[in-house]
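Section handout, structural biology tutorial.
Before the tutorial, make sure you can parse a SMILES string by hand: atoms, branches in parentheses, ring closures as digits. In the record below the ligand is flavin-adenine dinucleotide, and the chain has 491 residues. In the tutorial you will relate the predicted structure tokens back to the input. Do not try to memorize them.
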Amino acid sequence: MLLSRFLKRNAPPAGRIPGSLVSWSQLNGRALGGLRHAHAMAPRVVVLGSGWAGFEMLRDLNKSYYDVTVVSPRNYFVFTPLLASTSVGTLEFRCIVEPVRSKTDKVSFYEATCDAVDVTNQTLSCTSQFNGGAKHQFTVPYDILIVAVGARSNTFGIPGVGEHALFLKDIKDARKIRQRVIACFERASQPYLTAEQQREILHFAVVGGGPTGVEFSGELSDFIRDDLSKIYPTLMDKVSMSVYDIAPTILSTFDSHLANYASKRFQRQGIHIRTKTQITTVTASHLVVDDSQRIPYGMLVWATGVSPTPLVQALGKVVAKDTRSGRLVTDGHLRLLHPDCSTPFTNIFSLGDCAGSKDNPLPATAQVAKQQAIYLSKVLNRVRRYSNWSVGDEKPFTYHHLGSMAYIGGWKAIFDPSDGKSKVSPSTNGQAVIEKLDRKQWLTKYVSEGRLAWLFWRVSYFTMSVSLKNKILIPAYWFLTWVLGRDISRF
Ligand SMILES: Cc1cc2nc3c(=O)[nH]c(=O)nc-3n(C[C@H](O)[C@H](O)[C@H](O)COP(=O)(O)OP(=O)(O)OC[C@H]3O[C@@H](n4cnc5c(N)ncnc54)[C@H](O)[C@@H]3O)c2cc1C
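Predicted structure of the complex:
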């Protein structure tokens, strides 16, 4: 059974014969116009980014077919679904990172930022992360470029957000949040403060009622209730938490029944939900709401969606970009398009949060990024494996939504198996659709909310964690936190 599955997965595309390892230019010569690489047997693939898309490409690309280089300002991958857990100490930071180099004895890695792409000469301008006073810049040539630089937090240009809010995108952000929460409690314990000042410092504000803002609020609520309440019992009547969103409801991408369930749970946990509320200015100590009301806070976490990175903004001059979303535009094969959107670049691909198809924009999620990377690495491996096979011969990428989950605190979660749109994938046959709906109906009925959904949430993310090390560390820390509580040292 295993053997037949292996043979099926590695079968050549219909009508194609496995070829000897010939160069990218031989296979795709009409597209690339010849290799300029001394190591002609292995075209140079440069992957920009070590996030969900970049890291998966790195793992799946066949290193005997390609000479792979990764350029990223961080030398690790972050398992973002569990980032909120690390920001309060439910898990330790190292449980959710994977070093890029551990998978890459055959891959070059530069800890650097790519600033510009010269599509004519096929080179990248990069700036080293190790500046030491001077800016070290260097050039990296490529035959195939994969742009997977993700996105950054969207501040909507609201004054003061960039300077005063904390974000939750990377391990460094989670570390800052954890330090700030504990700092707020220590500061509020100082003997010279009035009760009113303590209240201001112990107001924890979260802007953004999407899954990231909600999961963080749930984790913070657990931390306060389970651990901080025992250490600072006299401060508990001064603590408050609020979630702000401009939309009429939190979790608007989830089924309304589940969003209501989460709102009710939050109310029960004492988390104030302020929807239809616009934050207009942020200062070091206050939020200004709807241009009038000033609300003091001790910590503000900003989780309101994503906007393009500087590289994507710069690339927008040489490739097609969607002016509304700011994302790079790709065709069905994840190739970037020329600025007039008429033809694709044959050797530049983009995936994950930084790109999207104009006709079928997909959500900025890890699921999408990972599936795209699996698809593209398979395609590129096939192009090298079979003679006369090119990217355009492949079926376009199809996304299979696996459902959305959010932890809401108190060992409860919600799980929405629908994608909020069509339940039918265009590539599935009738039978598969029926099976999928049955499975989804079953899941909706039994594990959509509460303790069972939370169990499902934990099992899913444990299963998806990458290395054996983290498969051991994650449940170990869950257990330790349950038995011993979270650490509150600030260093
Ligand atoms: C707290 C949190 C929780 C989340 N939970 C979920 C979830 O439960 N399920 C889900 O599906 N999605 C979730 N997401 C969304 C998911 O993490 C993103 O959609 C996913 O990370 C996108 O992958 P990516 O590879 O496109 O970008 P990223 O993972 O953001 O990676 C981008 C990479 O590019 C690098 N980079 C940036 N600029 C440059 C440059 N100029 N040159 C070179 N490299 C560069 C970055 O350092 C980074 O390594 C969550 C996100 C957050 C923040």
